[in-house]
Write a structure and sequence with these properties.
Number of helices: 16
CATH class of the largest domain: Mainly Alpha
CATH architecture of the largest domain: Up-down Bundle
Helix content: over 70%
Strand content: under 5%
Strand order of the largest sheet: 1-4
Radius of gyration: 22 Å
Structural class: mainly alpha
Shape: globular
Number of domains: 2
Order of helices and strands: HHHHHHHHHHHEEEHHEHHH
CATH topology of the largest domain: Growth Hormone, Chain: A
Largest sheet: 2 strands, parallel
Amino acid sequence: MNKDTGFFGHPIGLRTLFLTEMWERMSYYGMRALLVLYMTGSLAGFNPGMGLSAMDANAIYGIYVGMVYFMVVPGGWIADNILGHQKAVLLGAIIIALGHFILAIPVEQTFFLGLVFVVLGTGLLKGNISTIVGNLYGDNDKRRDSGYTIFYMSINIGSTLGFLICSYLGEKIGWHYGFGAAGIGMAFGVYQYIQFRHLLGSAGEFPNDMDESKRAGYIKWTKLSLVLMFAVIGCGLLGLITIEPRVFAENFAYFLTIVAGAYFLYLYSFAGLSPSEKKNLLLLFVLFIGAAAFWSGFDQSASSLSIFARDYTDLSVAGFIIPIGWLQFANPIFVVTFAPIFAGIWAHLARINMDPSLPIKFAIGLIFMAISFMVMVYAVQLAMVSAPVGMRWLLLTYLLQTWGELALSPIGLSAFSKYSPKRYMGQMFGLWFLASAIGGVLAGLLGGDATVDGLSSVQPIFTFMIQYYAVIAVLLIAMSFLFKSREKSS
């Protein structure tokens, strides 16, 4: 066992990763909270936005969130085979910081270029920093799970800082000040990572061992792919390629779904898995569907729910109109408050042999999501009679969605860690992030449909989402009996 206990009883290198992740999440969530509000903001006034339609702005938001999580897959491959995880995290952090500073420039073309940089940088950082956390521990080190719990806290601290600082600056002073604050936060993360990277030791320092001629081939194809990618991006920014956000988002959702489905099919049919591994893969596929559905609602917080907060919610507190983004740090506060309670509930149920199966836990998460949109449908009905409505409806919605997150997200990570075929572990975590990518794109599409005609279009879309979650929850409950019977027969 590693005797290093320099950070709350854990390896001192965890401090470096904790602070890097904290500042990265500060920049990500702080900027994300402003994204749709800025794009749909009026072209006039003291704080002019881009004047885009709700449909286009939400589609761009969905594309952005989907791309962020999709790029984790090639980012992990580059770290595994070319850079090593430590260099990938450093390069990703620098690119993210540059992206936010580009967003701070008040020019529309640089806005989209900044988003591209944030997407590419996050792809290199997000998955690889989590991999290094695991590498800090030996195979039999029992501190690993609690180490990830400490690391997870950095996400909540960072997102709270982002909502607090970037939302205030962006909404009250100027959008680009908010984007710039996100860049400064990420610059802090880069600085401390460079200063204390040595504390990581050899964890994630080198790429996988392979023949150098093979690695040279990988480098060649990576460079070619980057050249082609930036050529396409450049054509888009120069207006040589016209992109309809809504059409692109729809096709991107189909693409991600096909990629995920094809890879699950490949693993099941051609990867030489044992019968037990195939059964586990089917379980993970079912959970993948549930996760993608869940995130399509959860990511409405910076989409349709932000627009509802802006246009139909009373945001005054003791005479001060709070920034819209401040409502969103209810989620990290609720996570910190209720995570120990949920962990205690699962532990107690396990002790009395009543621990729900994984599909049941996912169904519980989706049921909470359905109830949260029931609350929003009621709030919309109130707003149609007399707007603005109290912010308590959004806070209750975020509370229910947080309960759903705690029933689903950590359980899903644990399931993919426990049941993935061992020789495909990294790629299976890439698939887990693909569920977030699909959910993000769907969130943009559904958010656009919900806000295209004001309140009259919100209620039918939210009602559809309630039905959508209820159906998938019922299917997951039914599947839980199938997996239980198969386990008994094996």
